[in-house]
């Protein structure tokens, strides 16, 4: 389990970095941070799904029609929390949008790990 948690961290950091970089690239171009966060989620989802499927949870032997819908539910649930927390931090603090995003991404990661491990990529 320690190895799996470490792999989750590596994939998660890679997805988080992609997510953060997409937001950091789009906001200066005029896109509002909350909308940029949606676009970044869609891009980072790819890194997260494929990394967790093939490396973190070694679930490549499980069918996509089982793991993909479950991971979409996990990711979208996590993203709803992400967007809500991001909105709160942007509205009610003076934090820079990049700092607020970093806090949110780190906070939501634990929930994503638990749901991915216990449901999305669980081997029966």
In short:
With 124 residues, the protein is mainly alpha-helical. Helices cover 82% and strands 0% of the residues.
Question: How confident overall, as mean pLDDT?
Answer: 92
Q: Into which percent range does the helicity of residues fall? A: over 70%
Gyration radius from CA atoms, angstroms = 15 Å
User: Main beta sheet, described?
Assistant: none
Integer tally of domains: 1
Terminus-to-terminus distance = 17 Å
Uncertain runs with pLDDT below 50, 5 residues or more? Answer: none
Name its key features.
single chain; 124 residues; mainly alpha; 82% helix; elongated
Structure, described:
The chain is mostly helical and 124 residues long. The chain has one domain. Helix content is 82%, strand content 0%. The protein has helices spanning 2-26, 33-56, 64-92, 97-120. Helix 1 (2-26) packs antiparallel against helix 2 (33-56), helix 1 (2-26) runs antiparallel to helix 4 and helix 2 packs antiparallel against helix 3 (64-92). The radius of gyration is 15 Å and the shape is elongated. The relative contact order is 0.16. The model has no long low-confidence stretch (mean pLDDT 92).
């Amino acid at each position: 389990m320690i190895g799996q948690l470490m792999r989750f961290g590596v994939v998660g950091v890679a997805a988080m970095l992609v997510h953060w970089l997409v937001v950091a690239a789009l906001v200066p171009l005029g896109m509002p941070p909350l909308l940029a966060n949606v676009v970044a989620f869609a891009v980072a989802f790819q890194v997260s799904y494929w990394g967790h499927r093939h490396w973190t949870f070694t679930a490549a032997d499980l069918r996509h029609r089982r793991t993909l819908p479950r991971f979409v539910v996990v990711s979208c649930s996590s993203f709803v929390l992400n967007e809500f927390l991001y909105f709160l931090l942007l509205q009610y603090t003076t934090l820079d949008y990049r700092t607020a995003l970093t806090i949110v991404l780190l906070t939501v990661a634990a929930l994503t790990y638990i749901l991915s491990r216990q449901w999305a990529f669980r081997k029966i």
